[in-house]
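Weekly puzzle thread! Below is a chain. First person to post its structure in token form gets bragging rights.
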Amino acid sequence: MQGWAASAIFAIRLYRKRYMAQAPTTRKRVTTLRLVEMKRDGIPIACLTAYDAMTAAIMDGAGIDVLLVGDSVGNVVQGHDTTIPVTLEQMIYHTQTVVRSVDRALIVTDMPFMSYQVSPREAFHNAGRLMKEAGCGAVKLEGGSRCVEAVRMMTESGIPVMGHLGLTPQSIHQFGSYRERGIHADEAEAMKKDAMLLQDAGAFAIVLEKVPAVLAAEITAALHIPTIGIGAGNQCDGQILVWADMMGMSTTFRPRFVRRYAEMHDVMTSAVQSYITDVRSKDFPSTEESY
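Winning reply:
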């Protein structure tokens, strides 16, 4: 395993070196200010999740603008049904692995369940740990008015904050389902108000998840900070998907808002089956692959 790890790290560094040599003018670091400028200039913001060094290096080399170290790591990597079991220490660890392999993208880290809900001061302390120990460029938290004081405390102290409205997965047990949010007039009005409150508290962007496209467009037009949509239509200032979803890693999770850009489950299954066949037949390793 040590040899594999060394080879992987070498491959990441070689990939980054080659990409930077080919396109030196495109490697300027993405910042929170740059995202606001992209909204102003009408340049859509491309975002994906990442939880490890190798995947993050590929995405960064491809030119992604924002990498979210999401608490969706609980579903994708850990195998949980929800994001609730994910801990602060786990988010710090996964962020550290992503930070090591990224040169350009803005790295945002989710604050996990119960790391910011207890009190604004505790939220501020935990956000500071993520910035200092993990090295991310910003944190993200779910909720509107109930989080405003914490957001303001963070931003006034130099911690960039991304908000998250609409479907908020950490509140799944309260809502009872993953249905879209903002479909009723009172809920839509509350979301508009929450978006303005987050902006006024200093948030630099807001994720809108599973929100009607018309509502997302209205919120986007009303804010001077960018909105990042996931299942919220194409009028948001940017889009985000979980990388495993858009790569087709699952055969069962196929929500309508996910476009599958590859069918990696099939590709990997075929590759593993070929490997097993070659091992069984002693075709692998060959003489050329042996020492």
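Puzzle host: Confirmed. Bonus trivia for everyone else. The chain is about 45% helix and 10% strand.
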